[in-house]
Design a protein that fits this description.
Layout: H1 6-19, E1 23-30, E2 36-43, H2 50-69, E3 79-84, H3 95-100, E4 105-108, E5 111-118, E6 124-131, E7 134-141, E8 149-150, H4 159-166, H5 169-182
Parallel strand pairs: 2-3
Antiparallel strand pairs: 1-2, 4-5, 4-8, 5-6, 6-7
């Protein structure tokens, strides 16, 4: 049996992650001589704690070992399983990524915005920023923002931007529509 592909690992991990209310954000494998490495990034709306990841890790280790014993997969001479969270370098590609990063600064097409709320269907997201001229609101389909990345901030974010990011989607969408009509 060959070393499992990321797709095979994802099929194995997905039911366990779902049980804990987590999503698989990334799987990376490194096939090495004596010890291969399987790194799985998990996230949830509540952001998993180290204790949460340890609990899932124990369950996945048992699952992987049992599957290997049955001959369904082979990790070679051995493997190290590492569970982590995605970190800020993960591009925002799904609605859940924007929902989980509400209030954070992101870079979209060379411009910096702050993530606001999503619409009820989670198809559109409001991006906001405060400028010297006032508030700016951009409402975009999530599907058009797949290159967005979180920007690390070392200072407290401006209160005006955080207030904007905390507003309801409908309020921000109406403000963006009025600005478009006035241009």
């Amino acid at each position: 049996m060959a070393f499992p592909t990321n797709e095979v690992i994802e099929r194995m991990v997905e039911p366990v992650a779902r049980t804990y209310g987590m999503d698989i954000e990334k799987i990376r494998t490194v096939k090495a001589g004596k010890k291969s490495q399987v790194v799985i990034a998990l996230d949830s709306d509540e952001h998993p704690t180290l204790d949460d990841l340890e609990e899932v890790s124990k369950e996945l280790s048992t699952l992987f070992d049992d599957a290997e014993e049955r001959g369904e997969v082979s990790f070679g001479a051995g493997y190290t399983l590492e569970l982590t969270t995605p970190g800020v370098d993960l591009p925002l590609t799904e609605a859940r990524h924007f929902r989980r990063n509400r209030g954070r600064k992101v870079k979209v097409g060379g411009e910096q915005w702050r993530v606001g709320p999503l619409d009820a269907e989670e198809n559109k997201v409001a991006l906001v920023r405060a400028t010297k001229k006032g508030e700016e609101v951009r409402v975009s389909p999530v599907s058009e923002l797949s290159g967005a990345v979180v920007e690390i901030e070392f200072n407290a974010p401006p209160a005006a931007e955080m207030e904007l990011a905390d507003r309801a989607f409908e309020d921000l969408d109406a403000a963006a529509t009025v600005r478009k009509e006035n241009k």
